[in-house]
């Protein structure tokens, strides 16, 4: 019997993609986000994403190992852009309106973040659904999102010592994910979820100034 040669089915690394390939990848992500917003996570199929993006189904799997990988990458990219917007807003406020204490800035950050997910409830459901994925490539995308969260949250509280801000940012990020999950799954109203998240922020940042 001949020896069976294993085939590497891993998606192509981003750094090895050509500009044309990167554009196809962006088209797949954009199509996935649009379809999730229109029809929800549960009904989405890779075939629909390919039809919307104009990328052949076989080609799509060169970029994403599975639907879960694509969806995890899509929500990670959307969340990354959200973090950029959130990080800019508190610093851009003029004069006395600018939050001075770390707790004040963090409260504004998470309030605006929750409002963004309130405006896009299907993307909140997407974030919650992919969090349970066991696909290794989806997990890698989610780890990237967690790193982006940590950097953005630590930037909001620059006065806090680095060793402490790392722990605080982790606590706030976990609370944010937990309250989004409680809201999406119907275990809490959005108002209750937001209040609990703000309570966590006040508690962990209390030593660095009142809010």
Describe this protein's structure.
The chain has 211 residues and is mostly helical. Helix 1 crosses helix 2 (46-53), helix 1 (19-39) crosses helix 4 (67-92) and helix 4 (67-92) packs across helix 5. Helix content is 70%, strand content 0%. The chain is globular. It has 2 domains: 11-64, Arc Repressor Mutant, subunit A, CATH 1.10.10.60; 71-208, Tetracycline Repressor, domain 2, CATH 1.10.357. The chain contains 9 helices and no strands.
Summarize the structure.
The chain has 211 residues and is mainly α. The protein has two domains: 11-64, Arc Repressor Mutant, subunit A (Orthogonal Bundle), CATH 1.10.10; 71-208, Orthogonal Bundle (Tetracycline Repressor, domain 2), CATH 1.10.357.10.
CATH classification class of the largest domain: Mainly Alpha
Question: CATH superfamily name of the largest domain?
Answer: Tetracycline Repressor, domain 2
The N- to C-terminal Cα distance equals: 72 Å
Query: Biggest sheet, open or closed, and with what strands and sense?
Result: none
Backbone shape? globular
What is the number of domains?
A: 2
Task: Describe how the helices and strands are arranged.
Blueprint (H helix, E strand, L loop, with lengths): L18 H21 L6 H8 L3 H4 L6 H26 L9 H18 L1 H10 L5 H21 L5 H23 L5 H16 L6
């Amino acid at each position: 019997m001949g020896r069976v040669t294993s085939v590497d089915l891993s998606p192509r690394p981003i750094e090895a993609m050509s500009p044309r390939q990167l554009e196809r990848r962006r088209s797949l992500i954009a199509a996935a986000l649009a379809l999730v917003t229109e029809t929800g996570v549960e009904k989405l199929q890779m075939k629909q994403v390919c039809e919307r993006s104009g990328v052949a189904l076989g080609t799509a799997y060169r970029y994403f190992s599975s639907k879960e990988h694509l969806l995890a990458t899509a929500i990670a990219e959307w969340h990354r852009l959200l973090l950029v917007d959130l990080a800019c807003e508190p610093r851009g406020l003029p004069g006395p309106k600018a939050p001075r204490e770390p707790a004040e800035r963090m409260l504004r950050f998470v309030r605006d973040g929750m409002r963004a997910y309130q405006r896009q409830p299907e993307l909140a459901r997407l974030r919650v659904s992919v969090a349970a994925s066991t696909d290794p490539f989806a997990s890698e995308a989610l780890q990237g999102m967690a790193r982006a969260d940590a950097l953005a949250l630590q930037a909001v509280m620059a006065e806090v010592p680095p060793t402490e801000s790392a722990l605080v940012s982790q606590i706030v990020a976990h609370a944010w994910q937990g309250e989004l999950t409680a809201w999406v799954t119907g275990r809490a109203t959005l108002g209750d979820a937001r209040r609990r998240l703000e309570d966590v922020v006040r508690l962990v940042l209390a030593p660095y100034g009142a809010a």
